[in-house]
Amino acid sequence: MATLTKHSPASGGWTYVIWAAIAILGAFALGIVALHRGETINAVWLVTAAVCVYLLAYRFYSVFIADRVLQLDPRRVTPAVRYNDGLDFVPTNKNVVFGHHFAAIAGAGPLVGPVLAAQMGYLPGTLWILVGVVFAGAVQDFLILFISTRRDGRSLGEIIRSEMGNVPGIVALFGVLMIMIILLAVLALVVVKALTGSPWGTFTVFATIPIAVLMGIYSRVRPGRILEMSLIGFVLLMASIVFGRTVAETPSLAPLFTYSGPTLALILIGYGFIASILPVWLVLAPRDYLSTFLKIGTITALALGILVVQPQMQMPAVSRFVDGTGPVFSGGLFPFLFITIACGSVSGFHALIASGTTPKLIENEVQTRLIGYGAMLMESFVAIMALIAACVLEPGAYFAMNAPAALIGTTVDQAAQTVSNWGFVITPDMLTQLASDVGESSILSRAGGAPTLAVGMAHILSGAVGGKTMMAFWYHFAILFEALFILTTVDAGTRVTRFMIQDLLGTAIPAFKRTQALLPNLMATALAVAAWGYFLYQGVVDPLGGINSLWPLFGISNQMLAAIALTLATVVLFRMKHERYAWVAILPTAWLAICTLTAGWQKLFDSSPAIGFLAHGAKYRAALANGQMLAPAKNALEMSRIVTNDYVNAGLTLIFMAVVVIMLVYGVTVSRQALRSHRVSTREASYELPVQSRA
Amino acid sequence: MNCLCNLGPELGRLGRRLKETANLMIGIQDYETYVAHQGRVHPERPVLSKTEFFRLMQSRRYADGSGRGLRCC
């Protein structure tokens, strides 16, 4: 009961007054965001509404989960204390762990999804980000962190195996491998979309490789001087952005860094292969350091920028594209909004982080509330800022940037006319002007989130520092910042995928398990790169922009993983005999299962070729049979390749759905067994330190 | 005035925490904590130098199957 009194509001009346005031302010701000029509609203209202919701959720719902649902026990020994080795298991200050955990969970996801979802207006995205994080995302992170902390910091796969059985354990691991492949492909696609035909952006992103190598060599000469090497790297990065303009404006240099989408995809695939077999200190580690610090800095800068500039939201609260005919991604608000915004609301990937390094650092299990629930609220705030950055743009510009060329054509005149016909008035001059403001030859059809976010950020940051003259700099800064940590993810992710493949193939061919041997290593790396490279390439040549087919696949897989993690959490609550509160995990599990299965079903069987993979495949097959060629295919071979891609995507969707269903069946079965039993059946680590190590 | 006198050490502690956080974000544990731990628990074993410790941490973060360098989307 000690914890109950610990979190209860202090008896002083002031705390009640303050929380009541936050509740009223939050309700008022949400009211403005939700109900205001006609004139534009200020982005600060969105920030206010979000912050109030986070404060209330953290103060009340997370305390409810901590005290009633989980009954956190401050006297219980954590793995960091039990196995303290000064290396992996280290009891660490809770604020330090919070920073570490946040840095590990916040990636490109919360920056991309909300930008895409902005096509439906800012209101649907905002509501889903807020409701989703409070009742699903932060709950998942908190529960999994708690569960892993009580089990010696073991990984999600291991815990599923011990609490639910071998089959669900293997199914979950297989699901994780699939999500890695799709994640890498879609992130690489974001980079390709941002750099196509952009010598300035391409030069700065290429420049990160020699900069990282230089930093890597510096770290061998002066080991451990991270601040020094990061500062050197940062200065060189900024210099590369400045010099990038010269490259783009010099006729002899610009063509060296101007590439088409498919070429960039091949370069990235080659890069992914080489980078992931180089020693880590040479490229991966230094760039990881740069991208981590730059990410934290940029997120802070964006937050300050929004507060200083206080931009107006130009996008309508709800756009006409809630009906599912949107150009950025196809499909109705339900289920596709909930698939498109994964990170920021609920991200299954976090379950891997929350059962990774973080639980091995926690001093006291009551801190899992701050670190699990709290850090996810912060990530959600990043998603809100990304949504704001997309919605402060002129809607016409937003749609011209995010709609595929197949819909809006390839010239500013065609694009302006089409987008204006949709009801978002824009002139060709405005599009040309915007492109020249950010130092690009064209901004049309750059779906993928990064360029839109970059223009939005440039808009906000140039309002705070530098004005219009700095806009091109800020744009390329934002592109570089996203590309930097996406490339880090591609590099690190390829290594992780390679290991998973070796592990999986190793069960059949033992030689593959030798992760130190060169040949199995190279072969598994090639397999990993080929797997994500395949999806990347098909996305790049897709006439509908690739994001249209790949992002839903990614969203479905990420939400699938969240459903798996929350199913585990449900099972654990039942086995703890806390079934009275199991709804805390059942509610989001059910919602995610409904969303992923409905979205999966529609991606498979919808009769519209823009949504259904099978319908799309059938359309191309019928055309091929009639001897017709449909863009982008120029010959029969390309036509049949598109048909194959559709079937591969359909197969993948089916696998994701099967994984969800299998996990649910096991979840229900194990929960019912636990319900019938009269004793606690969880497999937690022991409560106290072993006697001999107590000093 | 009392709080002003404490400002120096307070700022020092804050700076140390920030450094610790920044290091941990990139997977590098606190060296001093490690040294203190070794001295307390394994006084008989040799202690890694700062350079060795840094290299160990760096290679472990991206080591096969560790998942330490795993990043979210």
TrEMBL record, chain A:
Residues 42-599 form the CstA N-terminal domain. PANTHER family: INNER MEMBRANE PEPTIDE TRANSPORTER (PTHR30252), PYRUVATE_PROTON SYMPORTER BTST (PTHR30252:SF3). It comes from the Bacteria. Keywords: Cell membrane, Membrane, Transmembrane, Transmembrane helix, Transport. Belongs to the peptide transporter carbon starvation (CstA) (TC 2.A.114) family. InterPro entries: CstA, CstA_N. One of its GO terms (cellular component) is plasma membrane. It is a multi-pass membrane protein. GO terms for biological process: cellular response to starvation. The chain crosses the membrane at residues 16-36, 43-61, 127-148, 169-192, 198-219, 226-244, 264-285, 292-313, 333-358, 370-393, 473-496, 517-537, 549-574, 581-601, 647-669. This is Carbon starvation protein. Its main location: membrane. It comes from Arboricoccus pini. It is found in: Cell membrane.
Automatic annotation (TrEMBL), chain B:
InterPro entries: Sel_put (IPR007423). Pfam families: Sel_put. This is Uncharacterized short protein YbdD, DUF466 family. PANTHER family: CYTOPLASMIC PROTEIN (PTHR38453:SF1), CYTOPLASMIC PROTEIN-RELATED (PTHR38453).
